[in-house]
């Protein structure tokens, strides 16, 4: 088994909710590559950063009262060392993982910046809405459909301002509009959210 397959197996065996699992990580990786064009990112650093950035929130690795990005950094360090990942690249991967959340400043490397932007963008638009609604009852902040709608509203207002790159900002505007169209439609169809 190759290292890429091993990473996927680690995620699949970790109890990861599909909103944060392999498909999310793969979307983040692919979107980061797309946003960064024509910049030449280190594909190995970007791939491992994307696949490991949320490991600290998976049931097999999560620790109570520990921010998942910091926990992910620790888990990733162990995995990368075990896999004999190039040692000079490990600090770059770990910095990208530690700084991937919207409430963090972007890391110093291009890989860290594009990973963060892509992760933020995966919480916006149609895919972001799908992820929010899949988390109802699975996340302490999203217990009901009303919570998912409130979170969508918060994301639409706050997250586009957190995106750092020009290409990411343009996409954030489009994805924000997708959320706002959805919220407007659901508001009309549920008598101003009364019957959701």
TrEMBL record:
<feature type="domain" description="HD">
    <location>
        <begin position="21"/>
        <end position="124"/>
    </location>
</feature>
<protein>
    <submittedName>
        <fullName>Putative domain HDIG-containing protein</fullName>
    </submittedName>
</protein>
<dbReference type="Pfam" id="PF01966">
    <property type="entry name" value="HD"/>
</dbReference>
<dbReference type="InterPro" id="IPR003607">
    <property type="entry name" value="HD/PDEase_dom"/>
</dbReference>
<dbReference type="InterPro" id="IPR006674">
    <property type="entry name" value="HD_domain"/>
</dbReference>
<dbReference type="InterPro" id="IPR006675">
    <property type="entry name" value="HDIG_dom"/>
</dbReference>
């Amino acid at each position: 088994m190759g290292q890429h397959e091993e990473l996927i197996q680690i995620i699949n065996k970790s109890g990861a909710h599909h909103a944060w699992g392999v498909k999310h990580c793969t979307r983040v990786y692919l979107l980061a590559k797309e946003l960064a064009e024509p910049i030449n990112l280190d594909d190995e650093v970007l791939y491992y950063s994307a696949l490991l950035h949320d490991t600290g929130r998976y049931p097999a690795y999560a620790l109570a009262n520990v921010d998942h990005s910091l926990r992910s950094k620790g888990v990733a360090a162990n995995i990368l060392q075990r896999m004999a990942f190039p040692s000079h690249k490990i600090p770059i991967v770990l910095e990208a993982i530690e700084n991937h959340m919207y409430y963090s400043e972007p890391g110093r490397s291009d890989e860290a910046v594009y990973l963060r932007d892509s992760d933020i963008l995966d919480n916006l638009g149609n895919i972001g809405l799908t992820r929010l609604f899949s988390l109802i009852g699975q996340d302490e902040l999203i217990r009901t459909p009303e919570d998912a709608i409130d979170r969508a509203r918060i994301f639409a207002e706050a997250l586009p301002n957190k995106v750092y790159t020009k290409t990411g900002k343009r996409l954030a505007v489009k994805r924000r509009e997708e959320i706002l169209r959805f919220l407007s439609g659901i508001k009309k169809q549920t008598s101003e959210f009364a019957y959701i």
